[in-house]
Amino acid sequence: MARALSRRGLLAAGAALGAGAALASAVPAAARPRTAAGPGRAVFRLPDGFRPGCVGDGRFGLLYFGSLRDGSVHRIDPATGEGTPVHQGTGGPAVALQVNWQTSLFIAGGASRELRVVEGGSGAVRGVYPLGGEGTYAGDLIGFGAGHYVTDAGRPQLYLLPYGPFGSLPPAPGGIVTLPLTGEWVQGDGPTATGITYADDGSLIVLNAAAGALYRVDPKTGDAVRIAHHGPSLCGGDGLRTLGGRLYVVRPRQNAVDVLRLDPATGSTTVGRLTDPDLDFPGKPAVDWARTQLCVPNSRRTVPPTPTTTYTALSLPG
């Protein structure tokens, strides 16, 4: 059954980020999260004009938000709501973001066709890795096993950036392994592989937004097997996350997140939907470990972006 969350007004507008000394300062108290009447629900204020498209969770429960505007990264401590700029971006968007145990940020760059790796502390760029070719769209990524896997929403393949000893990375710009998606995979005309996460059996789970289906993918070969799904179609989904035995599928155009149960024998079953009046074209999700619940940024893609457009993220009990 779908679960609607109660509403509370968003936080008042805060000051936009300045230059120089402001880069090292925390977001003012007015921009801190406010917990609404719903148990655990919180709103995080992001810098005006930021255009968040994704969020990743890192050490100490910190949340790292990536910008669709220029690939910049902003960090928030969900326990306090205080925010700090981490990386000023390189011009390409941040469509998806993951944080590894070394607090390195792995950023999928969408139509820029690249995977960028940035130090989460200093914001320094560790490497930029070109992906695919014409038509490639780096849509989502997950750190799993041998390295970081990136989906290509425009072509039937995954990309692997393998780890070396002690988590070292191959020299840029090479080192990327391409895995064609084979087996039962069906490539659509529009954005197709738009979400990726992992399963307990050691496989990858990839969302096929064109077919509205989930696939189990062998992380070594790319062989894909369609998962039987019981419930509404997942067409148009964008972003996956696993938490507490549940699989979460972001539905941007529905301003919702579908909640699925995944069973090795019966497949996936929709068991609920997270909604909230303040969801506004949600982006790629992460876990808010301070509350052990889902965090989604509001990308507001239907609102014309300006330097003063306000942006937020929601932490939703699931």
Write a short abstract of this structure.
With 318 residues, the protein is mostly beta strands. It contains no helices and 28 strands.
The shape is globular
- How many β-strand stretches? 28
Q: Bin the helical content.
A: under 10%
Q: For the record, what CATH class applies?
A: Mainly Beta
Query: Which structural class is indicated by helix and strand composition?
Result: mainly beta
Number of spatially distinct domains: 1
Order of helices and strands: EEEEEEEEEEEEEEEEEEEEEEEEEEEE
The CATH architecture term is 7 Propeller
What is the fold named in CATH at topology level?
Answer: Methylamine Dehydrogenase, Chain H
Low-confidence stretches: 1-37
Largest sheet: 6 strands, mixed
User: CATH superfamily assignment?
Assistant: YVTN repeat-like/Quinoprotein amine dehydrogenase
What percentage of the residues does DSSP assign to strands (E)?
A: 35-45%
What is Rg?
18 Å
Describe the fold and architecture.
With 318 residues, this protein is mainly beta. The chain has a single domain (43-316), classed as YVTN repeat-like/Quinoprotein amine dehydrogenase (Methylamine Dehydrogenase, Chain H, 7 Propeller), CATH 2.130.10. 0% of the residues lie in helices and 44% in strands. It has strands at residues 3-4, 34-35, 42-46, 52-57, 63-67, 73-76, 83-87, 96-99, 104-108, 114-119, 125-130, 138-144, 147-152, 157-162, 177-180, 182-183, 193-198, 204-208, 213-217, 223-227, 229-230, 240-243, 246-251, 256-263, 267-275, 286-288, 293-297, 311-316. Strands 1, 21, 22, 23, 24 and 25 form a 6-stranded mixed β-sheet that branches. Strands 2-3-28-27-26 form a 5-stranded antiparallel β-sheet, with no helix packed on it. Strands 16-20-19-18-17 form a 5-stranded mixed β-sheet, with no helix packed on it. β24 (256-263) and β25 form a beta hairpin. The radius of gyration is 18 Å and the shape is globular. The two termini are 12 Å apart. 48% of the residues are buried. Mean pLDDT is 87; it is low at 1-37.
